[in-house]
Amino acid sequence: MLKKLRRKFVLLNMAMVSVVVVALLCVIGVFSWQQNMSSLNTALDMSLNQAAKNRTDAGQMLTDSLFGSFGFSNGDNTMFNNGQPSFPLGGDQQQGQDGSAGNAGDGSGSSDGSDGDAPAVPQLGGTAPSTIPVAVYRVVEGSSVSLVSRVTTASLDDATLEQAINQVLSEGAGEGFLQQQQLYYKTHETAYVTFVAFADEASASSWRGLVLVLVGIGVLTLLVFFVISLFFSRWALRPVEEAWDQQKRFVADASHELKTPITVVLANTSIMLKHPEQTVSSQAQWLESTQHEAEGMQELVNDLLDLARLESSEQVAFDSVVDMSDLVEGRVLLFESVAFEREVFIEDNVAANVQVKGSQTHLERLCTILLDNACKYANPQSTIHVSLERGPAAFMGSLPHATVQGTAPKGPCALLKVSNTGASVGEEDLPHLFDRFYRSDKARTRTEGSYGLGLAIAAQTVESHGGAIAAQSLPESETTFFVALPVA
Q: Coil, helix or strand for 241?
């Protein structure tokens, strides 16, 4: 079950992180694409505006139109035949190695207004020049097509240019994308001249490289997060695993404790059923044995119910004020006879007027468990020391050879101490001393009539009152229990 839970935990985390990573990649990719398109459109617009601005000779444009309509050649421009542009390969339009197109002859301005001079030098302090290569062409209605070299930073070969111009003129759109040539274009129309600016599709595709890098980073991030999720799933589910192990151990221990009395009860019942003719008095032995085992089971069930009630009311504030001084003295007096039968002595040192908030019944049960445990495991002719005083509980966290259950309260506390001299608790047994059904006796003998629930109930009682309990077992065979409860 824990493996399935851990797997679901990892899958849920990975699904959430994957959704976030994919969403971020999409947002960044769309934003980058928009930025690229915005830069490309800006470059096209700037080139067209600059070309239109430089074209101020309206009379020359009229001349171009008139010459073109009669099919005359216009200097470095291409020829028009019957109103359609003609692109002679290797003819007058020449492509420079620097990406700009020069005019035939001496490179001076042509009669149609083609820009034969060098590209304009950008001015500092003005609008930053575009870094996107743009090719700008002038299309004179009914006449010619020529390169505007002043604002052009790239060029097209004759075949591509012919196809591109024909498609642009046929579509008649102000801007668009030529799928076959992989070119973006924009147009700017005046009375006689149409300027067409081209930019390569690769100029607006840098976002793809960014997305590929981000995808690689995203995959690497998911792999790293997967490893981290595996680690944290074990860490986060460790309390669940411990609770699961405790539950399994509890079921096994409870079953073991109930198995013997139930077996005895069934055996006694079977014996009595085999002799129905006998009187009740003649079978008193089996009846008494059955009653004894039933009382033991009742005690076990009551202890389990007490534990369940204490756990359900953990850290609940009790309103009643309990005088721990009177309570401890009363419990010590009750155990004088028990100690006498076990040949041990009880010595108490109880401070007066030590009060705590809590349950009188539960605190009496706590003292009873500690004193009973001390009497059971004390050496004959030894002395049990019981003390109660006010003081801080900070020392509980630094006790050597000890285990602590709960959190020591801050401020003044009621400190109860019960110690006896007897067999010490092994180092391997100390961490489990307050576990249910745990006994250092691995043979699980029941000679003392104990089910191993007493200390578990004591620890739960202390925690429910907001205190802490510690057990210290020194190699010199002295075992001491410390209880710290916040004073009223």
A: helix
Q: Are 354 and 397 in contact (CB under 8 A)?
A: no
Question: Phi and psi at residue 325, in whole multiples of 5°?
Answer: -65, -50
Cα dihedral sign for 68, 73, 78, 82? positive
Query: Which element (helix H / strand E) includes 369?
Result: helix 360-377
CA-based diameter of the chain, in Å?
Answer: 143
Closest C-alpha to 200, from 148, 147, 164, 151 = 164
In DSSP terms, 95 is beta-bridged to 101
Cβ-proximal residues to 402 (8 Å cutoff; 6+ apart), any chain: 396, 430, 470, 471, 472, 473
Q: How long a stretch of residues is the chain?
A: 488
**Side chain identity, residue 49:** N
First to last CA, the chain: 45
Instruction: Say if residues 472 and 401 touch (Cβ distance below 8 Å).
Output: yes
Task: Confirm if 271 and 282 have CB atoms less than 8 A apart.
Answer: no
| 3-class SS shares of the chain: helix, strand, coil, % to 5 | 50, 20, 35
298 within 8 A of 320, measured Cβ to Cβ: no
165, 145 in Cβ contact below 8 A?
A: yes
Q: Which pLDDT tens digit goes with each residue over 356-376? A: 988 888 899 899 999 998 998
Helix (H) or strand (E) holding 420: strand 413-421
Residue with the two structure tokens 């009742």:
298
Query: Residue 479 carries which DSSP code?
Result: E
Residue keyed to tokens 């359609």: 84
SS3 402: strand
This prediction has a pTM of 0.52
> What mean pLDDT value characterizes the chain?
76
Beta partners for 471? 403, 481
**pLDDT value of position 58:** 41
Beta partners for residue 345, in sequence order: 383
- How far apart, in whole angstroms, are the C-alpha atoms of residue 470 and residue 413? 14
> Does an H or E element contain 299, and which?
helix 284-312
**Has residue 304 got a pLDDT over 90?**
no
Query: Which position has the token pair 């411990």?
Result: 242
Which residues, in sequence order, are CB contacts of 35 under 8 Å at separation 6+?
Answer: 207
Measured distance CA(287)–CA(346) in Å, rounded: 38
Is pLDDT at 98 greater than 70 in this prediction? no
The Cα–Cα gap between 471 and 256 comes to: 26
